[in-house]
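User: Hello! I'm new to structural biology and keep hearing that structure can be predicted from sequence alone. Could you demonstrate with Secreted protein? Please show me the input and the output so I can see what each looks like.

Assistant: Of course. The first part below is the input, the amino acid sequence of Secreted protein. The second part is the output, the predicted structure written as tokens.
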Amino acid sequence: MISSARTSRFVALAAATVLGLSVATAAPASADSRTIKDGKGDTWNIASETPKKASGHPEGDLRKVTFNHTARKVVITARMQNLKKSGEGVGVYMNIDTPDDTSYGADLIGTPDNWRGEASVYGSASECSPTGSLNYKKDVAKLSIPRSCLGRPDWVRFQLAGAFAKSENKIFYDDATGKKVEFAFTRRVARG
């Protein structure tokens, strides 16, 4: 089971990996929805300092992610290759960037204590109540974040990874942008 301390460590490790390896590029504002398709079998074990290819772990393998930015909320829908109740935890982690150079962290993680999943947002100055669900039959993780949690931005962009923690030494990630473990930001998703 991933305790709250281990979950925090997992998030810190993910954030360090993301921030250490990201390449952010500016892009013009886009529509209120963006979909990214991702290849099959492209997970990486990030538990050590040098990430290693680990394609035999489909539990955290992303296939398609859709980002919707409405007037009231940001909704992320991640389709996985084989989302299942397994190991110490499974779900999605992300960084969210906004126009005022404020970044937030968010996740939706299912654990043996709560396989339905728990949604969290980090770095929000306001009271924040995201919602989320993990549908193991349809292999879908869905996270909804009120725009008030993010300071009501005109646009957002994301770094997102599917995640599966088999054990403390085996933490598998799949970057939604298909950049191995470089974790590039998506293009901007404008408020609809």
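User: So the tokens describe the shape?

Assistant: Right, they're a compact way of writing down the 3D structure. Reading them back into a model, for example: The longest helix spans residues 4-21.
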